[in-house]
């Protein structure tokens, strides 16, 4: 047991390298620079993107070191991170969540399904891609996108 503790103390904290700050994709809403409160919405995904989002906010990639934080209420959010196609059952809850998020807000579509319906393009229960239901500011391509892609998109909003 002491060997593991010594190794942990010797090694220290291990995280992915941050790289340089990306250029701003959009103009950040007032008060968002350096800090971004995010409400995640699963509009009908296969949960692949959710696994990568949890990886992005986990201890290795640690998105919180760049000022991005997940919040439980849309009323506390600056941004909405939407995953999956918008199903017919999730269209109204998504619209209600967008309406409950204060202006100015950023809507981020995460994953190929959210951007262009992906493999669910012709499914009977699909209403459409996220941008067919609500305006989207940033898109993160990939099936699923990597944690580093997700963090790069979040950093483009915060400017960190």
Automatic annotation (TrEMBL):
<dbReference type="InterPro" id="IPR006137">
    <property type="entry name" value="NADH_UbQ_OxRdtase-like_20kDa"/>
</dbReference>
<dbReference type="InterPro" id="IPR052375">
    <property type="entry name" value="Complex_I_20kDa-like"/>
</dbReference>
<dbReference type="Pfam" id="PF01058">
    <property type="entry name" value="Oxidored_q6"/>
</dbReference>
<protein>
    <submittedName>
        <fullName>Ni,Fe-hydrogenase III small subunit</fullName>
    </submittedName>
</protein>
<keyword id="KW-0479">Metal-binding</keyword>
<feature type="domain" description="NADH:ubiquinone oxidoreductase-like 20kDa subunit">
    <location>
        <begin position="46"/>
        <end position="156"/>
    </location>
</feature>
<keyword id="KW-0004">4Fe-4S</keyword>
<keyword id="KW-0411">Iron-sulfur</keyword>
<comment type="similarity">
    <text>Belongs to the complex I 20 kDa subunit family.</text>
</comment>
<keyword id="KW-0408">Iron</keyword>
């Amino acid at each position: 047991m002491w060997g593991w503790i010594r190794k942990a103390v010797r090694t220290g904290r291990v995280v992915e390298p941050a790289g340089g700050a990306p250029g701003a994709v959009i103009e950040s809403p007032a008060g968002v620079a350096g800090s971004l409160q995010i409400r995640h919405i699963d509009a009908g995904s296969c949960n692949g993107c959710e696994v990568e989002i949890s990886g992005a906010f986990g201890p290795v990639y640690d998105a919180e070191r760049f000022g991005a934080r997940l919040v439980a209420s849309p009323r506390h959010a600056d941004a909405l991170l939407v995953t999956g196609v918008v199903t017919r059952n999730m269209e109204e809850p998504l619209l209600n969540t967008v309406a409950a998020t204060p202006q100015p807000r950023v809507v981020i579509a995460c994953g190929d399904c959210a951007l262009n319906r992906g493999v669910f393009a012709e499914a009977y229960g699909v209403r459409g891609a996220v941008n067919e239901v609500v305006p989207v500011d940033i898109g993160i391509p990939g099936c699923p996108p990597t944690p580093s892609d997700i963090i790069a998109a979040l950093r483009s909003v915060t400017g960190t």
